[in-house]
Every structure is written in C-alpha cells, then in structure tokens.
Amino acid sequence: MELVKVTEEMMMEQDGKRVGGDSDHWIYLTNLKAYNEGFLLGVYLHFPFDEEDLAQAYQTICVGNEFVDEFGYSYEEYFITDYDVPFSVGEYDFPQSLAERFIKAVYKFDLNRK
C-alpha cells in the first residue's frame, strides 16, 4: 500500500463533493482528524448508496490507512456533521445501517401513499 500525504490543498479541493444516489436526501460525512486539525473535509453522500459509493466517499475525504499527515499518522476516522433524511441520525452512526434505514423509510412511505 502506497501512503498518500494529505495536504491542506487536497482538503480544500475535495470538500463538499457529491457522491452516491440520486435522491435529495443525504448525510455529510466528515473526516474527523482533519476536523480536529481545523479543516472541514466532507462529502455529501446521497441516498440510496451502496458499498462502492461509500468507498468513493471515504476516498474523497481521505479516510483510510493510506492517507497520512506529515508525521505519518493516518486519517482513518469519520463522523456525520449534517444530514437531510426522514429520520434522526447520530454523528457516529454507520453509513451502511443508515442506507438500510433509508430504504425501509422510503418503502414504508411508498406503501402508505397507495
């Protein structure tokens, strides 16, 4: 695995991009280490999304063991700083479980419309 040194320029370029599905509902997934260093580095992850979309979101916000700072410490944690979905979201909820909840909420809503 090749290490990638994360720079301030990388963070500024990647922040605020859109990944995932085509609905108007989303979570804003944020790099925790970058946030603690004073940078907002996040991605709008739109529902519905799959594992490939989630991997792209992590790549976009530089989350993973291959992304390191100037001291070699990795950027491996994220949290949710904002959301627009028809249910409550915690800042440390797992995106995969939120994707399942979204599908259930939309399916239930569609059944009630008929």
Describe the overall structure.
- The chain is of the alpha/beta class.
- Helices cover 36% and strands 27% of the residues.
- The chain is built from four helices and seven strands; from the N terminus they run E-H-E-E-H-E-H-E-E-E-H.
- A four-stranded mixed sheet has the order 2-4-3-7. It has a three-stranded mixed sheet with strand order 1-5-6.
- It starts with a strand and ends with a helix.
- The model has no long low-confidence stretch (mean pLDDT 91).
Helix/strand structural class: alpha/beta
Helicity, as a percent range: 25-40%
Percent range for β-strand residues: 25-35%
The overall pLDDT, averaged over residues, is 91
Order of helices and strands: EHEEHEHEEEH
What overall form do the CA principal axes indicate?
elongated
| Beta strand count | 7
Largest sheet: 4 strands, mixed
Radius of gyration: 15 Å
What distance lies between the first and last C-alpha atoms, to the nearest angstrom?
Answer: 51 Å
Number of helices: 4
**Low-confidence runs of at least 5 consecutive residues:** none
Spatially, the strands of the biggest sheet line up as 2-4-3-7
